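@channel sequence for tomorrow's demo:
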Amino acid sequence: MPDYSYTARDIDGAMVEGTITATSQREALNLLSGQELFPLQVNTSSARPATLTNKRVKGQLMATTYSQLSALLRSGVPLLRSLRIIEDQSSNQTLKLILREVHDRVEDGQGLAEAMGAFPKAFSDMAVNMARAGSEGGFLEDALDRVAKFTEQQEDLKAETIGALAYPVFLGTVGSLIVAALIIFFVPRFGEMFDSLRSRGELPILTDWLLGFSQALQDWWMIMIAALIAGITVLKIQLNTDFGQRWKDLIKLRIPLAGPIFQSLAVSRFCRVLGTLMRNGVPILKSLQISRGAAGNRILSEAIDKASENISAGESLARPLAASGYFPRTVVEMIAVAEESNTLDDILVEIADGLEARTTRRLTLMVRLLEPIMLLVLAGAVLFVVIALLLPVIKMSSTMG
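structure tokens (generated this afternoon):
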């Protein structure tokens, strides 16, 4: 049961503050009255939610939770009872506590979306917005079912990507460690051997660069590591700001090879959520307001905001999206045709399906190309070290001959 902080007056009129444990705010008021206290203010204690606010729950587990909640609501089970059932069945302690807090907030009069929004690390913005739209439009169970399927698709895609990247990452890590060990421990042993060539100015430039870089790593490695840690820390702090988030989203769209993949995923999320909302009767302006957060990219969200303004002025959706430059031309053309034929909701879902299929193929191809690219880069680094060390040896041999 949650804790409630209260401010009340006793029989003598003195101010009394404290906390009380109850299943709901109404019960807390009754308990205080039973103690001959006259409550002035009763709020949920902030200590417990604060600890849960930063708790993360795995996406696959959240997808199962959304699906279970949708099934219970579709079966006619009331929302509060559904939340309690899922809480009791959950084996994850963090999720159990979060669901208990959501249940208590809903019982106290909050909407489901507002209660979910208090835990942003567990419930995504899209889930909160879809729950709000479903509550307002009377299709909460369908909205939660769509969130469950969407979350599961994203988790499957993430798992496939991580699995495909495992070997290239392992190869890159091991190869980098081998090259670093060569430069730090093996190359310096040739320094004294090549001193005579350096004194005569006959040391090849590649060897001179390699020896200088190796010496710099030995002399400044602590400073380099400290600078790297400081740079990562500053970057993390900056990325938590609004400017940093916007800059990160812009960079994601412009990265060679990976940029189109990020763009397609964001556009497909936007199209799927927008199409689902419109199919359930949500007005287009409200649907755009909700679906812009589902894109997961601030640059695209700004473009969608401008499109909303143009729609309010009586224009079409396709034109401002095309003007932004962040939506593929084929997508914009399909939206324009769908607006003319009044089939926008169906076409948007079809666009999302097509984009996700193409993105999956493109991602698979990119990951397959990473392996030979990593091998070529590592082979090139080792070849550079070998050539840089062999050139002066060959030169010394020819001189002695």
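heads up for whoever presents: The two ends are 90 Å apart (CA to CA).
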